[in-house]
Structure formats: C-alpha cells, structure tokens
C-alpha cells in the first residue's frame, strides 16, 4: 500500500508536469509576497549483468520511484527569498532545502537554513546530468546542513562562505553537541560570454564533530537488494577537513567538467592522519541544440534547453585508503522534451577492489524525470 501511495503521488506529479506550461505562482496585488509550487519525481528502471563476485549471486534488476519532492518557493517583503522542500523517499519523509535569503542587492546575499555547502556536484539537483551520483562525489561531499551563509556573485567571481551545524535537520543526529562546520568556496571566471565559459573553483571545509566518519562507494539507485555499498571505510575522527578543486569549460555545444576531491582525518587517540579522495571528469556534447547552459549566480552547469539531445560520458575514481578503491565509467544520453520533462539513459561499468576482494558489473538504466 505504501508503494502504491507513493506511485500514485508520483503519477499525479507527472501528469501535472506534462500538462503544465508554467509553474503555479501566486502573486498578490501588493507584490509583497509570492508563492510558487515546486516538485519532482523520478521513474527509474535498471538491469545489471556480468557481475564477477561469486558471492553476490544473480544481480538484481528493478524499477523504482525515487526522490519524489514537493515544496514551495518565492519572495516576501522587498528583498527576501524563501524555499521549503520535502522529500518522500525510502518509506520516509524528510526535509531538503529549507531556507530564507536576504538580498542586499544583486551582488551580496545572506542565507539561513538547511542548505548545501558550496562543495561538490550534489547542489545541481535537477540539473545533475547522470542518473547516479559520481562515486567520489557521493562519498566525500557532505549532505545539507543548517547554517548561515554569505553569498557574493559578480560576472567573473563567486564566493560562498558559511558556518553550519554538523547535525541533521530531521533528527539532530540524536545528540545535543552536533559539532561545527566551516565551509568556503571561491570561483573565478576569466572568460564568460554567450558562447564560452572558463571556470575555476576551489572549496574547503573544516568539521569539528564527535560523529563517526563513514565513506562508501555506491551502486545504482534502482538496485533492489539491501546494502548498496561496494566499498566503505569508517572510524572515529578527531576533526576532519575536505577540499575540492574544479574546472568547467564550455564552448557552445561542448562541455568539459572535472573535480578533484579529498578528505583528511585524524582518528581519536591516534597521531596518524588518513587521506582519501579521488576525481571525476565528464564531457558532454549537444547532438541537437546550440548552446550548453551555465548559471552564473550558482556557478553550476544547468540542464540543456528543451528539445535538446545530449551525449555525455563520465569517469570517476575513489580511493578510500584502508577501505579499497572503486571506479566507474558511464555513458549517457539525455533528451529534454520540455523544462518539465526529460529522459536519461545510462550504461555503466563499475569496478571495486578491497584487499583480495574484486567485483565488476555492468548496468543499464533509464530515468523519466518530471518536475514543475
């Protein structure tokens, strides 16, 4: 019954998205408040084959309704923005973006709430070009945190810096002393015009927390068995730091993007420091369409325009030090029917190693993504 209810909700979202040419927006006559209904859902299917681990048995195939969200966003008073978004996923309801933002002007902004830090590719959300997160991005990049953030945006420069709680908005991690996270990201764009973007970015964060650290590689969203982790590592840290360097280059139909990500941990009671990390590199070319899209305000790539067909490939690698290493090669094809509906097709090869353990498998996945 729960699966049926989720599927019914997702189908309602899909029907709305297909029929809507614009989002539902309420703007009173005094123009002091606006409300826009937002939402999304993913219909996924996947098949897995040629798995080498003899203990894994026959790979499972599956279909799933993933990451269904519903929320509102808009403006109030003269300079304030807000957003509240709830996720219905994995038999649970949880918060995602919950924040208010004060805009001093078009350049300076102050944001408070549950938000992503300026770190990794997870903040892309709907604009994430592949069905699954890159392995290294999933393992090292943090989830949303409650924090106070300063944002600076100009034509050639972005800065994002804030202080956050290391707790979770849904349950506070079950402890009163949640620890503190400091995070900052700087982006320089020496070239930006209608056809070309050259972007360099660097991020760093420092965490002081009593929580155990855990890092893992992943298998695809539509995997139907329990335990999606292929490789993992975890220990009690005494503070930790993470860092990232990135480059984005766009030339009309062509996009290249690469991220190097790392983390450094010192376990409690030990003088040794552990290092782990990896990288991802992806390329994209519009088979149909004229220009790749880039958002100057966020410093992130965006979905292609409607009626565009995108061919893409990504390689990513994660080394977990004592936890083994994992690599993934993914080839994809995306078609954007409208701003409310797109489809993704991914073929991937994953290899995982930990000591004597070795596992390789291939995946074929498809996603229909509806949003409004």
- Number of E-type strands: 21
Q: On the 0-100 scale, what is the average pLDDT?
A: 82
Q: Which sequence of SSEs, written as H and E, runs from N to C? A: HEEEEEEHEEEEEEEEEEEEEEE
Share in helix: under 10%
Shape: globular
Structural class: mainly beta
> pLDDT under 50 segments (min length 5)?
1-9, 17-21, 224-229
**In angstroms, what separates the terminal alpha carbons?**
26 Å
Question: Which sequence of strands runs across the widest sheet?
Answer: 2-3-4-5-6-7-8-9-10-13-14-15-18-19-20-21
Features:
16-stranded antiparallel barrel, two-stranded antiparallel sheet, 372 residues, disordered N terminus, mainly beta, single chain
In short:
The chain has two helices and 21 strands. By secondary structure, it is mainly beta.
């Amino acid at each position: 019954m729960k699966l049926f209810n989720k599927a019914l909700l997702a189908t309602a979202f899909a029907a709305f998205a297909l029929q809507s040419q614009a989002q539902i927006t309420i703007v009173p006559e005094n123009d002091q408040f606006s409300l826009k209904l937002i939402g999304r859902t993913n219909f996924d299917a996947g098949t897995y084959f040629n798995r080498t681990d003899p203990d894994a048995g026959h790979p499972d195939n599956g279909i799933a309704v993933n990451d269904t969200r519903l929320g509102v966003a808009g403006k109030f008073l003269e300079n304030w923005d807000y957003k509240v978004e709830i996720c219905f996923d994995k038999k649970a309801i949880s918060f995602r973006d919950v924040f208010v933002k004060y805009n001093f002007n078009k350049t300076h902004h102050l944001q408070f709430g549950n938000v992503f830090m300026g770190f990794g590719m997870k903040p892309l959300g709907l604009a994430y070009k592949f069905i699954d997160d890159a392995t290294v991005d999933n393992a090292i990049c943090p989830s949303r945190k409650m924090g106070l953030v300063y944002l600076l945006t100009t034509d050639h420069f972005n800065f994002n810096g804030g202080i956050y709680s290391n707790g979770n908005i849904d349950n506070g991690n079950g402890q009163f002393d949640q620890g503190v996270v400091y995070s900052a990201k700087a982006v320089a764009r020496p070239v930006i015009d209608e056809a070309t973007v050259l972007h360099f970015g660097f991020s760093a964060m420092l965490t002081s927390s009593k929580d155990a650290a855990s890092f893992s590689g992943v298998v695809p969203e539509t995997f139907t068995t329990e335990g999606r982790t292929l490789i993992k590592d975890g220990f009690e840290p005494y503070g930790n730091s993470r860092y990232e360097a990135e480059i984005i280059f766009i030339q009309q139909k062509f996009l290249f993007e690469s991220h190097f990500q790392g983390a450094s941990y010192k376990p409690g009671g030990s003088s040794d420091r552990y290092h782990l990390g990896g990288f991802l590199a992806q390329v994209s070319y519009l088979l149909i369409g004229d220009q790749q899209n880039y958002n100057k305000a966020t410093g992130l790539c965006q979905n292609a325009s409607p009626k565009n067909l995108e061919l893409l490939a990504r390689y990513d690698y994660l080394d977990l030090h004592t936890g083994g290493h994992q690599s993934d090669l993914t080839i994809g094809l995306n078609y954007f029917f409208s701003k409310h509906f797109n489809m993704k097709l991914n073929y991937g090869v994953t290899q995982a190693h930990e000591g004597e353990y070795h596992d390789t498998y291939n995946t074929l996945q498809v996603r229909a993504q509806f949003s409004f």
